[in-house]
Fold each of these.
Amino acid sequence: MAAQAGKTGAKAPRRARIKAQGSAQAASRHASAKTRQPRAQSPRHGGSPARENQPNLNRLLIVSSIAICLLVAVMALYPALRDYYLALRSVEQLDAELSAVLNRNERIIAQITALNTVEGVEDRVREQFGWVKAGEEAVNITGLEITDSTTVLPTAVNTNDVALPSSWLTEFLDALFFIQSDTSPANVPDPFIDQ
């Protein structure tokens, strides 16, 4: 224990001397700083105006880099996105045509079903040929417009007569991809290909 106390005691005056020297050096530096001319601070210490503008420059570089990358991505993906959109519009057109054909087929099936009965055949013969049964009188009325005749098959579906489904989104995308709404997507020329 006594040996430890002796060692710490010997170190204590040495620490005091180092402390005194450090404070004397600090005081002399402080005094000389007052008499010296102020020097320009180097960019390392954060005092120059160029250093203060550095974060703004970095932010501008990052934003412009992102904008350029997005522009390049849009330019690279635009043709593929347009083709994809045209395919979706073609599928919508074909779905609309299919539903029109199915509707026509249902009307034809209803006519066939009616002709498979005796009453249906009688109605068809009366309508188409003007025949009457024994004891009936035929009356011919003119000037009336018949909207749905059972004697005539429904007309075939014309692909140009089937309208594409439309919404605000499809109108926006048609304008974005230069598609005219009065033409079907299959007939739309590509504006990026010379014709």
Note: The first helix runs from residue 2 to 35.
Amino acid sequence: MSAEATIQVHVPTLPESEVEQVPMAPRTAAEGALRLGLIDNGKPRARELLQMLAEELGTRLPIASVELISKPSAANPISDEEAVGLASRVDLAVAGLGDCGACTACSVHDALLMERHGVPATVLITDVFVSTVARFSAVLGTPGYHSLVVPHPVAVKPAETLRRLAAGVADAAVTQLGAPSPAYAG
């Protein structure tokens, strides 16, 4: 008395589909002073590292002002309305800190929202999450999106180390943001 049995297997993945490509914001030499936007996701030491990066960028670019917005949670991207508002007030943007899977994905999303609204942006992450940026940026329509990478973990590093990390990625930030003249001696 053998009965045939059927096993049904469910694969928890989405089928391949076409993803609408998100164009990068134009990278052009800015006229005059630049306004830098920082999107702090609230992770430990993220604000401090972002502000140190802004200081480093100020030695390389004519940064006139820095606006920092702090998200209530690293687990959510900024809203489209917040992105539109920030995009109206800044010329360049850096989002971060991506030092876990969800917060990295949300920081990538934040940077791409700024790109979508015409503001050159980049995302600051730790080295453990480079592959997360690669996967998630492709899902969001910008495969190969760039990032500024520092060693993991950031939360336990002293301020002097954070300052060195900011200095170490500042030239890459200038390149990724497509900002004018790295020879600026402000």
Note: Confidence is low (pLDDT under 50) at residues 180-186.
Amino acid sequence: MNRARLCLCTLSMLAGLSACYREERPAPPPPATAATQPAARLSEIEPGAPQPHPPVPNKYEENAYAMSQGKSLFRKFNCSGCHSQGGGGMGPALMDDKWIYGSEPANIYATIIEGRPNGMPAFGGHLTNEQVWQLVAYVRSMSGQVREDAAPSRSDEFQTAPPEGRREKAAPKNAADAAAAPRG
């Protein structure tokens, strides 16, 4: 009986430890400096033969707490004022498969840091690198680009769309393909 109880206790501890990263809450970073931009590919045009560019990973896409922080930043910086909770408005939709400047984390990072013509302001001097990556993770979660178990599952506000954790993954398209597609 004691042996079975010991095995059960050990198994429950192992199961608890295996899920720790999903809810890991890192210590606050040291005093922040303005975010800097990683090398992001903004155009497919380049001289000579095309060179493969490795994707820039975002470690926050696997962390539910970091994505919830990104969701909070999205609300606090009034991103929904233009993006309407991800459904699009004055700014482009973030919940679909049409990405004007690219769906890779480095492209979204560059968009937040530098801004874009015709409306997207540059937030590079207002956010730390960590905050930008949290926003990137949340923006990608809006179109189902992150793991379902790490995406924010609900909000305490009025829901106009399904929670990020319950959205189907929208395969990103480049802007030219998206513009040519029929609208329905």
Note: The helical segments are 2-18, 64-76, 80-83, 105-114, 129-142, 175-180.
Amino acid sequence: MKSFLNRFSLLRALAAALAIGLLAVGYVSPAAAGALNDYAENKTLDALFRGQTLGAPATQYWGLATDTCSDSTAGTEPSGNAYARVAVTASLANWAGSQGTATTVASSGTNGTTSNNVAITWPASTGAWGTLQSVRLYDAASGGNSWICINLTSSLAVSGTGFTVSFPAAALTFQIDN
């Protein structure tokens, strides 16, 4: 049973081989491999093996956090100073198919990888947001559930006004299988 679950490990699937580039006022930092958290793992198991609805968000809300990833926590996001989660619609136009970057048709490739086709950019900070350590995908503009967490390879100190954090097109990639 253990090898079966390992083989079909969608529990950690979306982040199996994850690469992220983070741009903030000219600063580029890749991110370490991330993972689905407990909430997303349970939803995936129930959908794949127990006939339940996955309920994946039609609109994804990307957030930044000042703590590192944990399976069981939603993260500590900045508060105030123009910080807000960034909404991205789950669509063929916004996320590439597995056949290659910038594609806008249903996946037909063999590498199980997708990447963002559009930049994901937060508003410029109007004050300090703290030291950012991870990026998270949520299912609501505030509160809600965290589905995925990705630790940044290098933390990013947003120490005042004028910081713009952005993932350019093709910088945020997820690989499900391989």
Note: Residues 3 and 111 are 21 Å apart (CA to CA).
